[in-house]
Every structure is written in structure tokens, then in C-alpha cells.
Amino acid sequence: MYGDGRTRVRAGRSTWHGGNPVWSHANQHIDLWVELLQGWDLEPIAALPFTVAQDFEGDQFTLSAFPANDLERLYGIVTHELSMYDRLEAHVATQTARGNVVLLEVDSYQLPQPAGTYRRQHMRSCIGIDVLVPEAAAVGYFHGDGYHTASGEDYAAIFRPATVGYGEVAAFPHASVARRRFAALTDAALMRTSLELLRHHLSRRPQHNPISVFRMAFPSHLEHLMARGEPNFQVYAASVLRQLGVNFELLGRYLRWLVMHGHSLPDCIGEACYTMASEAMVMQFRLMRAVISRKSDPCQDCLDQLEQAYQGTVPALASHFGASVA
Hints:
By secondary structure, the chain is of the alpha+beta class. It has eleven helices and eight strands.
């Protein structure tokens, strides 16, 4: 498949993988970008300072995502929307031949990987295509936390134009391009800039404990969960408890990376991050049991733990680094 002389992003590993995480996966955005960055021999952990700015948005916690500006400052990666005036396949072929990666929203129903999801459920998903061989009807792409290939009918499904409304009018899917435009920072420069980003995001941190805000909204959330039952629970958990737990596990990972590189931080901050990640998981399991058994559980003790632990994470980091709120 790769015998045409083109160079694809190499699937690689950094200090990211390993250990025994509380949450096995982060989310589509994080998982995909981690694989892309590692494939370019870049360290994704340096881009995690954004995690300190997570807030409760009234109905969900802020989605963990690498900010585009941070990716450009640290790694020289520029992303922009892909304008389409030709066949999608033609645009992707042009970009991948230039060494770029096309981030394309597709229906995961037709993606042969990851295992267990193939042709089971229609769901919007994002893949990062770095190799396209039209003459072989084959494509290589990053999806989730792995690298995969598709060919034949699966290849055709990725590039078949969507149709909407009367007359089967083609609707272009959303796509963007990730391009390594500038040189990536390394060693001391990477660390220095990462710490600058940490201070920047600390200045953007919530002005109030987001768990306290969540706690005020939770009774109505619980009422809706109990009324709607099990089908609604998984979507709720992914948008609320998973986002909370994952975010603070990522922050804890970043703090360990800083310590590994010689920066002194109070151990209690990392421990509080682990408490946030694990207690969010505990609360998710308790709510799932409540929904299945139809016995409401207000999870007051979980909220107590989360509320207290949060004070030991972001506010403690802000105090350590002397960061004020913007």
C-alpha cells in the first residue's frame, strides 16, 4: 500500500502510553491528536496545560481539546479548513502527497477499525488521513488511539459524497488540514513554552469551583436521568463525568512530566488530580447503577470528594505559579 514513494506519518509511541490509567481513552480529539503528534515524533504531553481551564458549562464540562494556537506554538503545526471545489478524494490526494494530514468527519459505521464497532452504529467520527492511494482504492488513517487502513467498499464509503434533500444534491463533508509549517520546539525551548502556556491557561481558569457549580445543577440532571432511563445515560456520562475525570487525569499526567524534567511540585497536587479522575469514575458507576435499578442516588459523598479535591488542583497550581485570573 505504501510502495509509491510517499512518506506517511509514522505511528509511534512516546511517554504517553503505559501505566494503569483510570480512563482507558480520553475523547476523539485528544486520542487522534496524540497519535498524530507521536507519529511526527513529537511529545503530546507538552500540550496539556489547557486542562487547567476546564469549567462546568451548565449542562456539561468543557471538552478536553488541544487549542490550535498551542499546537502552533509548540510544534509548528497549522490547521485550516479544507475548501472543496473538486472531488473529496482529489483534495485528500493532493494534501497527503504534500505530507499533510486531512482531518475528515465521517460516519464510523463503515470504518473497519476499531474492532467491535464495524457496521454496528451510525456515529459521526473524525479520522486523520495521511496516505491515499486512489489507484489501489486504499487509505491509511488515524482514528481514536490507533492507525488503521480501509479498502474496497470501506474506502468507497469514506469518499462517497453525502446526499441531502430532494434530487440527491451532494453535500461536502467537513474537513481540515494539519500541516507542519514551522519547526517544532525541542528540549529547553519546548519546556519553557509549555510552562508559559500553563501560566496563560491558569490565568483563564474558572473564577469559581466548577464542581460547586455542577453540584447546584446536578439535582435536575439526576431527575432527567432517572426519567429517561438507561439509553440516555451513556451520552450523559460521556459529556459530564467522563470529561471531568479524563481532564484531570490528563492534568495529572502533565504534572508528572514536569516533575520528571526536574520541576519541583507539591505531591499533593498530583494526588488531588488522581482523586478527581477516580472519583468521577466512581460517581459514573453509581449513577449507572441508580439508573438501572431505578433507585435515585444523589451521590453527595462523591460530590464532597470532588469539590474538595478540585481546590487541591487548579487553585493550588495557580498559587504555586503565582498566576492571577485574567
